[in-house]
Design a protein that fits this description.
By secondary structure, this protein is α/β, with parallel strands linked by helices. The protein has two domains: 73 residues, Orthogonal Bundle (Chemotaxis Receptor Methyltransferase Cher, domain 1), CATH 1.10.155.10; 233 residues, Rossmann fold (3-Layer(aba) Sandwich), CATH 3.40.50.150. Strand 4 and strand 5 form a beta hairpin. Bound molecules: S-adenosylmethionine (SAM).
Amino acid sequence: MGRDSLAKDLTLEEFARFRDFIHQQSGIFLEESKLDSLRISLVTRATRLDFSTFDAYYALLVRDHKEFNELMNLVTINETSFFRFPQQFDALKNRVLPEIMSAKPENNKNFRVWSAGCSTGEEPYSVAMTLLDAGIDGLGWKSQVLGTDVSTRALAVGQKGVYGKRAMINVPKETVARHFETVPDGHRVSERARKLVDFGYHNLIKEPYPLSLMGNWDVIFCRNVTIYFRLDSTRRVVSNYYNSLNEGGYLFIGHSETLTSISDQFEPVEVGGVFLYRKTRTRKVFGVSVPRVDSVSPLTEASRFKKAERLEKSTAVEAAEATAASKGAAGATGPEML
Ligand SMILES: C[S@@+](CC[C@H](N)C(=O)[O-])C[C@H]1O[C@@H](n2cnc3c(N)ncnc32)[C@H](O)[C@@H]1O
């Protein structure tokens, strides 16, 4: 069969055809520098399926959603870690949580967080652990965390909730003691935290989003996901987040990301050197909705830029990711719950 012929170079034309399809289906745009890593992914899949040409593989890819998922498992960058950029989790616990809880009516004690592009689950579990540490369950609140992604392989890891040594390196001992149990193949997230988290397949670029996602979120995390997208895709995704959030709800983006030239609908809020984006609450004045002026005033663009610059202390991993926009995704509208 075609292992030998497939090992040949992927021509620029062939690359462009796959790149455009992946971009259209997943939002992920592979720069030309990623030609070789895409070639390796394509050869892996085509060889597995015994195809002898990239053309034949392409013909299957465009008609078979399952094959698209398989390719996404190879193309997406799933780098993540527990409590990645811990300041954001401090801000969630000390600022966002009390603010949202105090604004909810007595008969609504639900707190809902969506981790979009959750990879292997470290992010939604970190959110769940933060909520548990804040003790909101003891106060009679019900919390729910949903993790979604286009990588079915990453989601399966999250669903299992077991992590090896490498994933645990930077997790403080006290957190390990509080939220994990030791199992033969590593550390398993405690049942208390696992109970709060669900996982589901959802492709952020596929619209319309299912009703279950379109609304009633108090917080959305979408960190280090759209760094692989082009501006127009990011705008669409962020606009969907805006519509899905409750008034007063917060969007968390990666610490090296910005909403500048993406959306002016959110109000930037600085908490302990971290920028969060809040959906403004409205109030009715003579039957018309007008924004409410909250105690924290939005920062000016200029001061925001300055502070964002100071915050630009990306880790080596994150810097590598930002330049490693080599991977892609697509699929059906979800979330297809696991
Ligand atoms: C670098 S990881 C970030 C994980 C986590 N949010 C964090 O910051 O640690 C990016 C994730 O986004 C997912 N992703 C990329 N495109 C996506 C899309 N169109 N829909 C949903 N998830 C996507 C990838 O599969 C990958 O798991």
